[in-house]
Design brief:
Blueprint: H1 12-29, E1 35-36, H2 37-42, H3 52-61, E2 65-68, E3 71-74, H4 75-80, H5 85-96, E4 100-101, H6 102-111, H7 117-130, E5 134-137, E6 140-143, H8 155-161, H9 168-177, H10 187-198, E7 202-203, H11 204-214, H12 221-229, E8 234-237, E9 241-244, H13 247-269, H14 273-276, H15 292-304, E10 309-310, H16 311-317, H17 328-340, E11 346-349, E12 352-354, H18 356-359
Antiparallel strand pairs: 1-3, 2-3, 4-6, 5-6, 7-9, 8-9, 10-12, 11-12
Helix pairs in contact: 1-13, 6-7, 10-11, 16-17
């Protein structure tokens, strides 16, 4: 649906799921290809305060991701392979819906094959210097088409040269965004006032036009965007559409509820592994052999997870064994023994361990 039509009203829960999806998207940008979900989930930034299990449903349902044989990837990776470079980068930024750090774009483009990240970093830097297709704001890449660069001597010239002549979004917002009293002390204050007055999401470029009308001598699209991205009174929707920052409190509450529901469900459904492992396997039991691939995944999870990891999570997520499997208990013993024997991993409970990601180690 076009944003020039009546915007869809989203709930804080919708925004919370999108927030998680965006964080997962950025994790996947740094991956070289299809990755087990347990790795993706545990690489989420600690600042989200969301347990991995709370994000699993988002990872499985967000249409920006694909899954094959238990491994997740960005849908764009398959679609963009072999495509025009500029178009690929624009598509990638569009999928995330906001500016992307240049190193993450470079890593993703390198994963498509042909060159290393350093080559793409230099290529993107040259494109930013030209500023014909992409610009840079605090190390993040943003399409020039998302910004207003005024040209001409008057408002009609700006509309014409910026390809906004007859724009339906401007027509829909003009009455509310040209009212008396909206001009603030500077461009940022005016932007905050305009977003509140719009009473609907307003795109960054169109917002720029209305700010420019009130501050023609001071308007700088990149400086304004930099300030807006750091402004708590504003919130950026996908595609760099702005709404009042009041929604943040609802998003935080929705994330907390999602986390609480997921962890409560998991605790209720999972076996009491502490009790099960209290009794050792018989001496003649063959145990469980962890192959090299799964061994590498166990250690990667311990290195990337910012929270302690349980043996139950490793057995179910990495080894793929359900509690009713006859191999589950032997595998749990093997995983616990593996972690206990590693001097770089800290035992924080009978079946809970913290690796470098949680302890700050290398």
């Amino acid at each position: 649906m076009s944003r020039e039509e009546t915007p869809v009203t989203l709930t804080p829960a919708d925004y919370a799921r999108r927030t998680l999806g965006d964080a997962l998207f950025e994790v996947m940008l740094r991956r070289p290809g299809p990755t087990p979900g347990c790795i993706v989930l545990r690489a989420l930034p600690e600042s989200l305060h969301v347990a991995p299990q709370a994000a699993r449903g988002v990872l499985e349902q967000d249409p920006r991701f694909s899954v094959q044989q238990g491994k997740f990837d960005l849908l764009a990776r398959g679609i963009l392979t072999g495509s025009n470079f500029n178009r690929s980068v624009e598509t990638l930024i569009g999928d995330l819906g906001r500016p992307i750090p240049i190193p993450e774009v470079a890593d993703f483009m390198a994963s498509l094959g042909g060159r290393d990240s350093a080559y793409y970093t230099e290529l993107l830097s040259r494109l930013v210097r030209k500023a014909e297709v992409f610009c840079e704001v605090d190390g993040r890449l943003v399409p020039r088409s998302w910004l207003l660069f005024p040209e001409g001597d008057n408002e009609d010239d700006v509309l014409f040269y910026c390809d906004l002549d007859g724009n339906e979004e401007i027509a829909a917002l003009r009455s509310g965004c040209t009212a008396e009293g909206l001009r603030g002390a500077d461009c940022l204050e005016t932007a905050v006032n305009l977003v509140r007055a719009a009473r609907r999401p307003i795109s960054n470029k169109i917002l720029g036009f209305f700010v420019y009308r009130l501050h023609p001598a001071d308007f700088d699209p990149l400086e304004l965007l930099r300030e807006m991205l750091a402004e708590e009174r504003l919130y950026a929707e996908p595609g760099l559409y702005w709404i009042p920052g009041d929604v943040r409190a609802g998003i935080k509450a929705a994330l907390e509820l999602l986390n609480k529901q997921a962890t409560t469900t998991e605790k209720a459904a999972g076996p009491n592994l502490d009790e099960l492992l209290a009794e050792e396997l018989p001496p003649d039991h063959p145990g469980y052999f962890i192959d090299d691939d799964n061994l590498a995944l166990v250690y990667e999870i311990m290195n990337v997870s910012t929270q302690p990891v349980t043996v139950l999570e490793l057995v179910t997520e990495v080894l793929g064994l359900a509690p009713d499997s006859p191999r589950f208990l032997p595998a749990a013993h093997s995983v616990r023994a593996l972690l206990r024997d590693d001097p770089n991993i800290l035992e924080v409970g009978p079946t809970t361990f913290a690796g470098a990601g949680a302890t700050g180690g290398e």
